[in-house]
Structures are given as C-alpha cells and as structure tokens.
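call fold target=TetR/AcrR family transcriptional regulator
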Amino acid sequence: MASKRDWLEEGLRILSEDGAPALTIERLSTRLGLTKGSFYHHFKGMAGFRADLLAHYEDEHTNRYIADAERAGEAAGAKVGRLLELVLEDKAASDGLEIAMRAWALQDAEARALQERVDRVRVDYLESLVRGLAPAQRDPRPAARLLYLLWVGAQQLVPPMPAEELREIYLLALRSVERNEGP
C-alpha cells in the first residue's frame, strides 16, 4: 500500500506535468497502480487531497529548504550557500512545479493563499539572510526581492537556464548585496 506521502509526491508530479485540472483520483490511482479505496484511506475526497497537497508543497519546497539552510551554521553566508545549492538542485522546480503552482494560484483561492504565504515566507527568509550578509544595508527588502525574483524569473525561460549559469547570476547579485550596491 502506498503511503500518504507517495500519493502527495505523485500529485506534485502530475501537477508539474499537466497542471491542476489533471489532479483526479482516477489519474492518481492509475499512476500509482492502486485502487480508489487506497486514496480514500488517506484523504477525505479530492478537496482534502488538494489541501494536503498544498501543505505538502509548502513543507517540502519552502519549510524544508529554510530548515536545511539554517542547519548550515550561524553565518549568513553559509546559509545562503546552502540555500543556493538546494535551489539549484531542485529537480521539481526545473520540471515546472513552481510554474504549475503559480498557474493553479491564478485559478483557485486556496492555492492563491498558499502561494502568497510561500512567497512571503521565502522573501522574509531571504531578507533575514541579506541582513546578515550586509548589516549596514539600510533596507534589505529590495535585495531579498531581487534574489527571489531571479529564482521566479529563471523558471520562465524556455529552454531552462542551466544551473551553472543561474549560479553565476546569483553570485553576481550576492556580491552586489554584500557591497551594499543592491537595489
């Protein structure tokens, strides 16, 4: 029997591939090779699944990243370095999950509320890192937004930007922040 996490991970894959309208019990069950009864063992219908999927996305693609970055040490530079590695290694994002989530947020109030919260948490965390990198910077918010917008914008490119090129752009932006030349 598949775990609740298995169902949620498959949901994120379907979302990445075909968008929120493709999230059906039939499609999930078929992809996992399981019965609909197994689905109902873990979720209270499709509405419950979607709510759990949004929470799972937030936990895996925001909260876990922040927790992992925090474990990198006390120094803001170490945290930024770890966060950069996590972001650049994120296969789900390069497979379109972030784009699919934003598209879903345009069509669904619950997904929109989640996306707003995720964006706010991510920018707030980046702001705390910028404050640690450049304590003399008058207002770290614009620099934090710049770093986040690099991530969001890079996902829109077709074909996707290679991780090494994106790393170079991030490092350029971080050098600017550290010298207090940021926005």
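return ok
The longest helix spans residues 45-70. The mean pLDDT is 93.
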